[in-house]
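Example for tutorial group B:
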């Protein structure tokens, strides 16, 4: 499988954090579904100096580019305008023994 690191940075307008918090349950539900299918490896929030969420990092794996594209089209933080910018790079999780 191809692995990817996804870095999304939130919009910075006045209502951005409230929007994020409203959409967050849908984002987490989607991540749970992808975890059950074996696509979601890990993820979490990027925090500012005050400890408030300002973005996310997620690591996924997909068999095809089409599956990655389907995730992007359905990801609530993308479709609901939470992430202002999204960077997706090929990635490989290190195996440490």
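The residue assignment follows.
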């Amino acid at each position: 499988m191809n692995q990817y690191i996804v870095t999304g940075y939130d919009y910075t307008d006045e209502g951005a954090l409230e929007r994020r918090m409203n959409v967050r349950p849908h984002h987490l539900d989607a991540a749970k579904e992808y975890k059950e299918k074996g696509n979601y490896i890990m993820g979490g929030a990027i925090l500012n100096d005050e400890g408030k969420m300002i973005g996310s990092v997620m690591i996924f794996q997909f068999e095809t580019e089409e599956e990655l594209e389907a995730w992007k089209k359905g990801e609530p933080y993308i479709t609901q305008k939470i992430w202002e910018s999204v960077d997706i790079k090929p990635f490989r999780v290190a195996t440490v023994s």
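The CA atoms of residues 40 and 60 lie 5 Å apart. Compare this with the pattern of hydrophobic and polar residues in the output above.
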